[in-house]
Amino acid sequence: MRSPLVYLTVLVVATCGLVYELVAGTLASYVLGDSVTQFSTVIGVYLSALGLGSWLSRYVQRGLARRFVEVELAVALLGGASAPLLFLAFGYLPDFFRPVLYAMVVLVGTLVGLEIPLVMRLLRETVDFKELVAKVLTFDYLGALFASLLFPILLVPRLGLVRTSILFGLANAAVGLWSTWLFAPLMGAVTDLRVKAVAVLLALTVGFAYSERMTDLAEEG
Asked: What pLDDT is stored for residue 221 in this prediction?
């Protein structure tokens, strides 16, 4: 297992995690108005969910590498589909939009909160603890910086919210697939995980291709 590549993985998943938070806050502000309230509540709930995910990671006792890949694929599906699902919820179930919004934020935040603790536990046998904490958190915060800069400057103006969320879902799924090689020494058979990862990648690719149609459906609702 090559530590530099693991740190690159941390950078990618951290960037994805913050993008999902920004997507939810921006979308809520767009459809509900009062951007201060929407961003404050979404950020607060998301950060709390991150803490919940970190706390729940203590109960993952076996197969850490497999669990990490499974978490990545779950984040890819939920995070990637978050914007289209929220737009559709607002279009067709406006009275239930807020519960759907915060349920999505809690689910995605909890899954994202599992990622870094699992990575740190995977590395603790091969990297000095002080160096491990310093490097993992450094790349985690760098990922957040990249997301906060890319989101308003490049992603939303060029792709919009729906394509942005799906694109980063693809990134999470790619990390999940890549991790089946990166953490291969810590896993047994990985064929099932690779098949699942490819299926998620294909599903999100189709979603990306039909993103405009999904936006039109939400507006028609």
From this structure: 61
- Quote the domain boundaries for residue 18: 3-220
Neighbouring C-beta atoms of residue 53, cutoff 10 Å? 23
Question: Helix 191-209 to helix 64-92 angle, to the nearest 10 degrees?
Answer: 20
pTM above 0.85, yes or no: yes
Domain count, the chain: 1
Q: For residue 31, give the nearest of 103, 96, 106 by alpha carbon.
A: 96
Pairwise CA distance, residues 12 & 207, whole Å: 21
List the structure tokens of 57. Answer: 């990671």
Q: Is the pLDDT of residue 157 over 70?
A: yes
Question: 10 Å Cβ neighbour count for 194?
Answer: 15
Residues 15-66: tens digit of each pLDDT: 999 999 999 999 999 999 888 999 999 999 999 999 999 999 999 998 999 9
How far is Cα 71 from Cα 59, in angstroms, rounded to an integer?
A: 14
Amino acid symbol at 153: I
